[in-house]
Specification:
The chain is 79% helix and 0% strand. It is an all-alpha fold and 75 residues long. The protein has one domain. The longest helix is centred in the last third of the chain and has 20 residues, at 55-74. It starts with a helix and ends with a helix.
């Protein structure tokens, strides 16, 4: 649960930076449509990999998916 708490704090800081200093994430703006359009595909692939892999790799899949979700929510 601590990791989830840190994730929410990081997400909140990114959203605040986007609100008060919009140029902070300008380098991601060209990729925004690609990140948004690929949501269901990335979700299904991550879910499938999570189900197929063992415990150690599950954590890596989960971390990569959370990074994608952060990008999805911020752009």
């Amino acid at each position: 649960m601590r990791t989830l708490g840190w994730l929410f704090v990081f997400l909140g800081l990114l959203l605040l930076m986007r609100e008060f200093h919009p140029s902070f994430l300008d380098w991601l703006r060209p990729y925004a449509p690609y990140i948004r359009d690929a949501f269901w595909g990335v979700t299904l692939v991550a879910f499938g990999l999570y189900m197929l892999t063992r415990r150690a790799l599950r954590r890596a899949v989960l971390i990569l998916y959370l990074i994608y979700l952060l990008l999805y929510l911020v752009v």
